[in-house]
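User: tokens in, sequence out, please.
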């Protein structure tokens, strides 16, 4: 019996030697990421430009800590002490005109930092949170506290309140008591002498206060809330925005695993189409002591109806003024001008407009219109943001626009009402910033290749660009305050980010300062995926990452990975934020699978037309790109058309469901993770961009939501979801599960993760989920 077992063991080992094996395993890949080593992030300089700060974790602690490298000794990496952290100057704040001092807020208190002396002193501790500090003169500091503007005179040590915004209504203080309460008060006053005296004294004090402020204007917010305060350069104007809190129903998510032992409800979000907050912009004219609302009625096209309304001829559409949101207001140096970016809340328009500070009227400089939705690098979103400001001459506004199909940098001469495009081409510009002397631009762009990012310098009025980085991949540059050096977080497709130092010169050499890979991580030879293009059915050419196995282990099966977020780029030449998936793809390739990772329609990095290719039909071109990718693999790499699987999370999970329901002849198996199953149940900010609102454009939602196509399921489907997901709710897959049950579908399963949200945090959950994915592929397409 023993001899027989030995013979069987030898035979089994001999047979296994012909099968694909890997030094990787799901458990190894999905363990705490600290096993990979430590990699720098959140890089910042000190004000003297001789120390680089960054988050790092060489000691393998629970979380990263702050570290630093001095330019005097770049070989030494030092952990920053708690004492130094407490006194470290904030990276945010406002500089004086000579750039010798900085105002900043820390823990709600106001500080001034002397850059030359390297000295900090506390200016104000009011017991109330201070925000938005600003130099008016070298000794006068403006700031916001309790929703009002104050000026502090450092020479005199005095604080002056400049505005008077109050919550509630002017009618509130005059509100009458009920008849019962009035009677009780009168009885109390007649019975108790002390109560009567207190009331008389209180009324006398109030009368005196009214006399002191009889000439002061009070702006009552009523039911609105004020936010986003912008102080003008002279301190003579304050702009602020208001909104009325949303009246729509907020959703909740049940949390079953917690210390209390009871099911607790987590607050989540509203759903798309719920009433959005109306936003208004106001100007507080300090010298006139009055407030006026900015009037948007003059904006060109403000009442235009979107084209999709033509699909509903039986509905009566009213051409009315659309709701808008506003960016920060940007003031020229002496308040001669102000500019603001205004965005229609239906996402179809963005206006760059001059703001008349004396009247609140607008003069439009540039209307950016898109029948899909306005977006792109430097464009901003419903929540604000975007590139906007003034050149040093106070007559040129700068901003970004996708007018040519790619986001580029523009100037507008407000005196001549003339626009000038500074950059052009089939690439995108990211994060432009003016040099300290205001004579040059620094920015990142994808000009070299859509999958690379490089840093450039260009004259302020445009002209020849100087490329300042050269390493092939992603160069995330943090420029030193004196602009002499660049701290670069650089990564390539198969190497995580490391910190480099380079002089701000084109031909200078970059010096690597960190080397954080662990021995365990670097022991494996991580693949550099091929970056390829293939032709889609409509002639477009998506980029994709391709992982090919050795011929000796090739099982002629393929897995297509669908990245999440929709508007995200993953087929690039740098380290992916999907690093677990990248490692999983290496494991799959070791096991004989060919893996394709496509930047499908809707992905970032390829301009306006690519971004909006999914408008009103998610699951259209973004899905057909996956199908075309599968056909490309079959035609070029001998992939068996019956052995193709697909998987992805979030948006990738959504596409996986659409693939399994609508393309059963292409995909035999799929794993849909944290998936949207019905877009009418997702959030407003993301969904309304692409599909409008469900009660206004139901056609778009019905053809874009997997739950409507569940009857098409024929292959093997794994659905995985975290129960405490406050982004894409667990309810989504519960509703889909019921639909699949009612349709009597087979070969599908649901894996739930009780403690996980949208982004998993526990290695055990990651491991369980990806073991299931691997098992799905191994038993369906891999055999």
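Assistant: Sequence out:
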């Amino acid at each position: 019996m023993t001899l027989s077992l030995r013979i069987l063991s030898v035979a089994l080992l001999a047979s296994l030697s012909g099968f694909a094996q890997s030094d990787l395993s799901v458990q190894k890949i999905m363990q705490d990421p600290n096993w990979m080593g430590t990699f720098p992030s959140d890089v910042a300089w000190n004000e003297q430009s001789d120390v680089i700060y960054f988050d790092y974790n060489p000691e393998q602690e629970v979380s990263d800590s702050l570290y630093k490298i001095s330019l005097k000794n770049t070989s030494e990496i030092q952990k920053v002490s708690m004492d130094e952290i407490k006194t470290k100057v904030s990276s945010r704040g406002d500089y004086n005109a000579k750039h010798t001092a900085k105002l900043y807020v820390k823990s709600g208190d106001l500080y001034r930092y002397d850059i030359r002396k390297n000295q900090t002193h506390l200016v104000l501790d009011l017991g109330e949170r201070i925000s938005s500090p600003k130099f008016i003169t070298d000794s006068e500091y403006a700031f916001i506290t309790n929703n009002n503007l104050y000026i502090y005179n450092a020479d005199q040590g005095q604080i002056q309140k400049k505005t008077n915004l109050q919550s509630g209504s002017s009618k509130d203080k005059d509100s009458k008591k009920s008849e019962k309460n009035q009677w009780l008060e009168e009885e109390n006053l007649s019975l108790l002498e002390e109560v009567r005296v207190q009331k008389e004294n209180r009324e006398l004090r109030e009368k005196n206060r009214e006399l002191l402020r009889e000439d002061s204007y009070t702006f009552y917010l009523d039911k609105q809330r004020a936010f986003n305060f912008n102080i003008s350069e002279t301190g003579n104007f304050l702009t602020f925005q208001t909104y009325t809190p949303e009246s729509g129903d907020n959703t909740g998510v049940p949390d079953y695993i917690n210390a209390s032992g009871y099911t607790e409800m987590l607050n989540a979000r509203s759903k798309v189409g719920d009433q959005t907050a109306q936003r208004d912009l106001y100007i507080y004219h300090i010298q006139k002591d009055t407030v006026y609302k900015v009037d948007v009625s003059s904006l060109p096209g403000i009442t235009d109806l979107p084209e999709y309304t033509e699909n509903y001829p039986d509905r009566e559409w009213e051409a009315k003024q659309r709701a808008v949101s506003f960016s920060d207001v940007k003031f020229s140096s002496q308040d001669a001008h102000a500019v603001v970016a205004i965005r229609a809340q239906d996402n179809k328009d963005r206006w760059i407009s001059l703001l008349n500070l004396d009247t609140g009227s607008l003069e439009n400089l540039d209307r950016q219109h898109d029948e899909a939705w306005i977006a792109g690098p430097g464009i901003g979103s419903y929540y604000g943001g975007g590139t906007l400001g003034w050149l040093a001459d106070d007559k040129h506004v700068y901003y970004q626009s996708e007018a040519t199909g790619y986001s580029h940098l523009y100037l507008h001469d407000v005196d001549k009402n003339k626009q000038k495009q500074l950059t052009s081409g089939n690439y995108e510009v990211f994060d432009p910033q003016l040099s300290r002397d205001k004579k040059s631009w620094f920015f990142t762009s994808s000009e070299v290749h859509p999958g690379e990012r490089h840093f450039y310098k260009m004259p302020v009025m445009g002209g020849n660009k100087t490329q300042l980085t050269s390493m092939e991949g992603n160069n995330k540059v943090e420029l030193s305050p004196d602009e002499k050096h660049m701290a670069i977080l650089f990564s390539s497709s198969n190497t995580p980010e490391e910190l480099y130092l380079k002089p701000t010169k084109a031909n200078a050499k970059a010096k690597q300062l960190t080397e954080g890979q662990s021995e365990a991580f670097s022991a494996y030879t991580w693949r550099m995926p091929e970056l390829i293009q293939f032709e889609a059915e409509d002639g477009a050419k998506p980029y994709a990452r391709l992982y090919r196995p050795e011929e000796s282990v090739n099982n002629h099966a393929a897995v297509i990975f669908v990245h999440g977020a929709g508007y995200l780029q993953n087929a690039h030449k740098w380290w992916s934020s999907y690093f677990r998936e990248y490692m999983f793809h290496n494991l799959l390739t070791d096991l004989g699978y060919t893996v394709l990772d496509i930047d499908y329609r809707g992905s970032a990095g390829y301009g306006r037309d690519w971004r909006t290719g999914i408008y009103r039909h998610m699951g259209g071109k973004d899905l057909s790109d996956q199908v075309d990718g599968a056909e490309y693999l079959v035609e070029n790499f001998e992939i068996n058309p019956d052995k193709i699987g697909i998987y992805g999370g979030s948006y990738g999970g959504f596409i996986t469901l659409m693939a399994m329901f609508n393309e059963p002849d292409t995909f035999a198996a799929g794993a849909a993770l944290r998936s949207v199953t019905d877009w009418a149940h997702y959030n407003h900010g993301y969904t309304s961009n692409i599909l409008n609102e469900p009660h206004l454009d139901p056609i778009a939602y019905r053809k874009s939501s997997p739950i409507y196509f569940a009857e098409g399921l024929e292959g093997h489907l794994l659905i995985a979801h975290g129960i405490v997901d406050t982004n894409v709710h667990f309810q989504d897959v519960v509703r889909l599960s019921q639909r699949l049950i009612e349709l009597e579908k087979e070969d599908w399963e649901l894996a739930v993760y009780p403690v996980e949200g949208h982004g998993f945090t526990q290695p055990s959950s990651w491991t369980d989920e990806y073991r299931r994915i691997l098992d799905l592929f191994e038993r369906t397409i891999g055999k």
